[in-house]
Design goal:
This protein is 42% helix and 15% strand. It is an alpha/beta fold. The longest helix is centred in the C-terminal third of the chain and has 23 residues.
Length: 537
């Protein structure tokens, strides 16, 4: 904890030196590594904690309710805020009833609707129903058949405690109607653990209209995989993780294929530089990029590579781009293609430790043939991006010919050209995992939570970055960063995880300085030195 506080202090000092107004939020964004478990495993964590702490389940629920009530009261600190609690018959409903009691104890006005249509509550839900007892500040309704909904206004805050993460089929009937009523109201909605109706992992066969659309989701202990998928954002809203003290021992011992990459998980992977090191110690990289009208992609990738510690960089360019690259990136050398306008023939890679290919490459027939020849002849790890991925979509069999330790960096559409159409992010992730396994490559599936996927199927979701990075050239910058790391001798997994993290961190720094709307890919490159400096701390 002392080390973490000291690191945060250093980050803030560095930010002031660079005249960047990085606030405390950005520093706290880089905290602890985190596992993501299937919802079935969360139940096992609960059970292990109850048995080994030891603690009664009702007391563990009270611990969770205290964390929830505190988070809610911090967001809505005006005690005149009217709350309406919708509680289901299970433990999620028990959490909601306990939260209602705790908020009422702080002076809030609470109206509670407990849905008990089958006359069967979970033991802890029943216990929390009894604890409400007729407390002042709470209007309580137990719904056994007819439901007369309250009038919800924009001043109300709805606490959704209908169903938790154990749901395995779409809501229907009366509960679906309640969800639709909540969604149609102008009230703010806070979901406990997970929005009711949303499943923790795969929602391929769910019914969108039967999922609560929360403004805030207060998830307990660990996030759910579904939170990281773009199509679920309208339901999850802003999510916040609340530590409720589940067994750290059980979390450490329980295995999973899914993780959130945090600084504690990547900082130690950064190599230190020896005092007597020279440029030859940090690798030679070859970047094959650009075509007529697309010189900018090669410039951005080259600058990012040089800003990420590579010893020497050569950029293979068509003749038309040579002057642009030579003047824009004087630190790089160029190798001129036989073609005036495009990449037209494979080049020798014996003198290099890594090759990056794809940014601004174009899709001419000459380039298509040259790409295949380059893959066949290359013996060092490759970073394959952009048009190189699009061309490989037409020659999928060559994915298996990529050198060992290579990294593919597709955005969702580029991935679909390699694996076929996907109906949602969950299916896309599963197909990407299969591709990583069969091609024996690492894949960086780009997005708001970019996923680094290993051939073994493990996935690390990135936690840095912001919507301002959704701009042309951002992917070219990432290619340059990854190329530099591979050339310096980092293994593919470390290079991918470290590179994606630092790329996002540079984007966060750029957003703080330029704003998300006004930032460009060049701003990300310019922010890389500060990002690396923060990591080196």
């Amino acid at each position: 904890q002392v080390k973490k506080i000291f690191m945060i202090y250093l980050f803030r000092v560095w930010a002031k030196i660079a005249n960047l107004e990085l606030n405390f939020y950005l520093c706290c964004k880089i905290a602890n590594d985190m596992k993501i478990f299937p919802t079935t495993s969360i139940k096992q964590l609960d059970a292990y904690t109850i048995e080994n702490e030891p603690i009664d389940s009702i007391d563990l629920m009270e611990r969770a309710a205290n964390a929830l009530a505190k988070a809610i009261a911090e967001r809505w600190d005006d005690v005149d805020t009217p709350f309406v609690v919708f509680a289901g018959p299970g433990n999620n409903g028990g959490d909601a009833l306990a939260v209602a009691r705790l908020l009422a104890g702080q002076g809030y006005s609470i109206e509670v609707y407990l849905f008990n249509t089958k006359g069967q509550l979970s033991p802890d839900c029943e216990a929390n129903k009894e604890r409400l007892g007729g407390l002042a500040g709470i209007v309580f309704h137990e719904i056994t058949s007819q439901f007369v909904p309250p009038q919800l206004t924009e001043d109300h805050v709805v606490i959704d405690g209908l169903f938790g993460s154990g749901l395995n089929k779409p809501l229907s009937g009366g509960f679906a109607a309640v969800v639709k009523y909540i969604n149609a109201s102008p009230a703010k909605v806070v979901a406990i653990d997970i929005p009711s109706g949303l499943m923790g992992e795969d929602n391929s066969y769910n019914v969108a209209s039967c999922i609560v659309r929360a403004d805030v989701t207060l998830t307990l202990q660990l996030p759910k995989l579904a939170f990281l998928f773009a199509e679920n954002a309208p339901y999850v809203g802003e999510w916040e993780r609340l530590d409720i003290g589940l067994s750290e021992e059980a979390i450490d011992e329980m295995t999973t294929d899914y993780y959130l990459t945090e600084p504690d998980d990547v900082n130690w992977r950064l190599k230190t530089r020896d005092k007597f090191a020279h440029k030859g110690n940090f690798g030679r990289a070859l970047l094959i990029a650009g075509s007529q009208g697309m010189a900018g992609a090669s410039v951005l990738a080259a600058k990012a590579c040089l800003r990420s510690g590579v010893g020497l960089l050569t950029v293979h360019v068509p003749f038309c781009n040579n002057f642009i690259v030579q003047t824009s990136v004087p630190e790089a050398m160029t190798e001129i293609d036989f073609s005036e306008t495009c990449f037209s023939g494979a080049t020798d890679t014996d003198d290099y430790q890594a090759v990056g290919i794809g940014p601004g490459l174009g899709k001419s027939p000459e380039t298509e043939n040259a790409l295949i020849d380059q893959i066949e002849s290359c013996q060092v790890p490759m970073v394959v991006d952009a048009d190189a991925l699009n061309l490989l979509g037409e020659h999928r069999s060559y994915l298996g010919h990529l050198p060992k330790g290579s990294i593919l960096t597709p955005h969702p559409k580029e991935l679909e050209r390699l694996v076929g159409k996907c109906q949602n992010s969950y299916e896309r992730l599963m197909k990407a995992r299969e591709l990583a396994r069969t091609a024996d490559v690492h894949i960086v599936l780009k997005g708001a939570y970019s996923a680094v996927i290993s051939p073994s199927g493990q996935c690390w979701f990135n936690t840095t970055g912001n919507p301002g990075m959704a701009t042309g050239g951002s992917g070219d910058v990432l290619t340059g960063v990854l190329l530099a790391l591979l050339a310096q001798g980092y293994d593919a997994e470390t290079a991918a995880r470290l590179g994606v993290y630092v790329h996002g961190l540079a984007g966060d720094i750029a957003a703080r300085k330029q704003g998300e709307t006004g930032m460009t890919a060049g701003d990300i490159v310019a922010s890389l030195p500060m990002a690396w400096r923060m990591m080196e701390g």
